Please model this.
Amino acid sequence: MKKINNIRWTAGIIGTLMVAFTLIFFIGSMIEGQNKPGPGLETYTIMTFVVWGIGLAGLLLAIWKPGIGGLISLLSFIVFNILVAVNPNPDSSYTVVLLIFLLPSVLFLIFWWLKKSSIKTS
Model:
């Protein structure tokens, strides 16, 4: 049971750090954006940010409900990776490093599955 809890703690720490760093970058970008006017956001970019936000919200939910939160974040990050991979902007490129964001979602789902299995066998 201790190994199962270690998986949950690892997933929770990684997920919380991802949310915190995203918020820090978002706030910094908003502060920087107010100082320099630029082009408006495209529909594609807004859709990508919304999917990313849903994934982050799923990670926060997974702290309390690992099954549903892990599933929401996993599906959202998969959709995010697909959106970024087919980005219509020719100046950007997809990097496989983005797949690392799937890690806490998968860990939450593994924890949920192992805990559910251990309850049935007890």
User: Anything to note?
Assistant: The two ends are 12 Å apart (CA to CA). The chain has four helices and no strands. The helical segments are 2-35, 43-64, 66-85, 103-121. The chain has one domain: 2-121.
